[in-house]
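does this look right to u?? beta-D-fucopyranose version
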Amino acid sequence: MTARDFPPEFLFGAATSAHQVEGRNDNCDWWAWEQRGGSKDPSGDACDHYRQYPEDIALLRDLGLNSYRFSVEWARIEPREGQFDPLALSHYRDMVERCRELGVEPIVTLHHFTLPSWLSQRGGVLAPDSAQLFARYCRKVAETLKGRATWVLTINEPMILVLMGYVQGAWPPGKRPAAEAVRAARRLAAWHREAFAAIRQADPDMRLGIAKHWIDFRPLDAGDRLHRLGSRLQHHLFNRWYLDQVKSHCDFIGINYYARQYTTGLLRQVPLAAQGAPHTEMGWSIVPEGLRLALVEAASYGLPLIVTENGIACQDDLQRLRYITSHLAAVRQAMAAGADVRGYQYWSLLDNFEWAEGYRPEFGLIAVDRQTQSRTVRESARRYGEIAKTGLLPEAAD
Ligand code: FCB
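got this back:
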């Protein structure tokens, strides 16, 4: 008998987020941002996943995947401050139950970039009581999903939210002075800690973590002192600082890994694409080794890890398959080196709304025709499903 590359309980799955797939999420800050031209396309009906989730989860299960990472939408659950919508809550309870019925482990994210309009209108993350408001919403969701959901992520990519929203300003709330960016980062750490305590009370059996975006920073010129200093500084600020703030309030850590970036100054990097190196349609470099390094380093926190996102936007589906297998090989190598990795969630299950980039980038295992909303399973999805079913990587993966 061939030994498996991954244990039978390994969580092979795919990820989405509410605003990117559900459609008509019109009571949040991103919707308003889109109406003001902040995205190449407005999200509109997205993939109509709010209605089509039963079929989509069944598709995922039929591929052979055993887990689904998705997010619940605060703007739907608490459409006005302090008023919780029982229909929205039961919608997400149904989603979790649907997963369970099909033998799919749900991995639930509570915040994936969007804020309810009422909160963004009174300061968003920087509103003085935002951490308490977030914790109250999280408690409500935890009470609703009690006993049904095990793996729960409080916040998706807090540092990307700060970087894209406050520093670069391509996302809401738009560019802000550096001091506000720093306050937002600190505040998002408080969000996690407050939410952790509230959810623990509501359901002590939930395993709580955050989805942390990890960039593999390397100096462009290893002989240049400033390039080297830059990679150490950016690694600390972007990868480590937030985790250090929340590590004592985590049962596991989610790692979202996409790319390596080369540093050319204290706070500067260059996109690899510019140099003709392998890259995705987003211009992100393709370096599977960076995932191994990320997991091995994150393992030093002494917690279980899940790769909560990893994926590629491309036209060539074979390239997607190679991306998946080479990154899974990196996961296996990290496990062989001692990292306690429990799962891998490909980004994304469906082609979807890629924030300011609109609908052009196609990350999906499943293509979506947005006129008809019909789904087409890609070959990479079938082959990824085979890996999930057998626990075996194809030979050439490393
Ligand atoms: C991550 C986000 C996710 C998606 C992918 C491509 O940073 O968490 O929503 O946009 O990038």
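The CA atoms of residues 305 and 341 lie 5 Å apart. idk if thats expected tbh
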